[in-house]
Amino acid sequence: METPSVRRRILNHTIPLIMARGYNGFSYRDLSELVGVKTSSIHYYFPSKDDLVLEAVNEYSNNVLNSIQAIDAALPAETQLAKYAELFDSTVIDGNQICLCGMLAADIGWLPESVRLALQTFFMANEDWLAKVLRQGLEERPFAVNGTPDSAARMLYAAYQGGMLASRLFRTETRLKEIQAACKIMT
Amino acid sequence: METPSVRRRILNHTIPLIMARGYNGFSYRDLSELVGVKTSSIHYYFPSKDDLVLEAVNEYSNNVLNSIQAIDAALPAETQLAKYAELFDSTVIDGNQICLCGMLAADIGWLPESVRLALQTFFMANEDWLAKVLRQGLEERPFAVNGTPDSAARMLYAAYQGGMLASRLFRTETRLKEIQAACKIMT
DNA sequence: GTCTATAAACAGATAGAC
DNA sequence: GTCTATCTGTTTATAGAC
Asked: B56-186 is classed in which CATH architecture?
């Protein structure tokens, strides 16, 4: 396993920094100390902070969406949703981090339109996947979902975003677990 | 109606600034320009930024909780929840703002324990009120709530927090309206 | 109470040597 | 590519005159 490039190491450190502190909460200086290069070298790879953040969003988005797509669609809907929820648990509890895209949605006032669009795309991809699984759940056990699967999925995703905030605020994983439990009843 | 004191005007401007931009997104300089006094005068009233933020949380919390308590408990549960949802709508859509306590929950890494506790108290007050109304709804129409009223209330509140994020991100009120619609089915 | 003045640190960003 | 050096502007905060 060879040493990752400087560019990669910058991105690898940027993502958890945003998840923990937000757009205005980390600096090139922080990255400089973490990666071990001068801030001017970071500007070489990412001329502006907006460039860096946009790439961080794309990187994070690809990683998370790949993990979601990897959930076996042949499993019962309830099991798929449990695996989905696991994706959030560890980052919040172990790392005091929340979803990178949820955090940047809070910082939206500072971000260029390109980042806003990337965040919207990530939100919709999650909502679409959840809607698909909820529809599958309806076929398995035809009842229980409030409203259309699509609107239920959007509400569920909003609950996950808010649940991460609350879990970190109260320093307890039960708030995320409760949302997962509510999923069971919806499927 | 007499002119509010400088102290009051500082707080009155601080609250929407936090709701729009977060803890790291506004400065004493911003307030200085908005209120029309020098930054050193703001330090006279609020020696540190943490002092200012704590008072802003308490002020916001009192205002919102008073509005919630003012909702007539004799109304049908569904109507009460609709009035609750209205409290969020306008700030998000008209002002590009989200809940002050939700925003600061995203910035929790920078805040002292005193503010964390104040945020927790606000979250729990909302959840308790929602749980009370959901229980009332169960008496009126005994069915529909997923799980216990308490856990349903926490999930619903998380959905509101996440819904405000999404509504502002997508610049549409429909995402908040959908959560309100889901309430109807829960009551 | 409000101001001027200033501190000491930090931000994102750039020019140019090596 | 990475560095030194620097620019320009910002931040929170304090001392002390009025």
From this structure: Orthogonal Bundle (1.10)
